[in-house]
Amino acid sequence: MGQKESQKESTYRESLRVPVSWWIIAAATVITLFVIVAVPAGTPAGAIVGGLAAALLLALFLRYGGARVEVDDRRLRAGRAEIDRTYLGDVEALSGDAARNAFGRDCDPKAYLVLRSYLPGAVRVQITDPGDPAPYWLIATRHPDRLAAALSGHSVGRS
């Protein structure tokens, strides 16, 4: 068990893709818009409106759901930000009410947030860099225990 294996254990990657239910709702919305416009104005007009709505929703979902969380031996990357691991302090896995409250009433306005309302958990990572205005990062995740373990250097099995 060499150093490469221990680096593998501490590596974490997650894509914060939007859930399938959002895509189903988007498809129903595009079909509804097509019908609403096509019935009075004709099929070409419905196709244009439906096509524009589909393109807009596709772009929004891919951008919003394209956020990634990555941990390696040198850095933490969440969304568009990254930080060297030497500036990371305490790590706390949150789920249920604790995660909801962390993003809501208990949230520090200066914190860096990667919020995805459709994800059930979160991880709060204290920032020790005195030059960083954010006291902590709060990162939404499907696997708070695994992300917290990767950040603190422990191994947690997949569930």
UniProtKB/TrEMBL annotation:
Bilayer-crossing regions: 20-39, 45-65
Taxonomy, superkingdom: Bacteria
The UniProt record lists the keyword Transmembrane helix: yes
Keywords, alphabetical: Membrane, Transmembrane, Transmembrane helix
Official protein name in the record: DUF3093 family protein
Organism this protein belongs to: Kribbella aluminosa
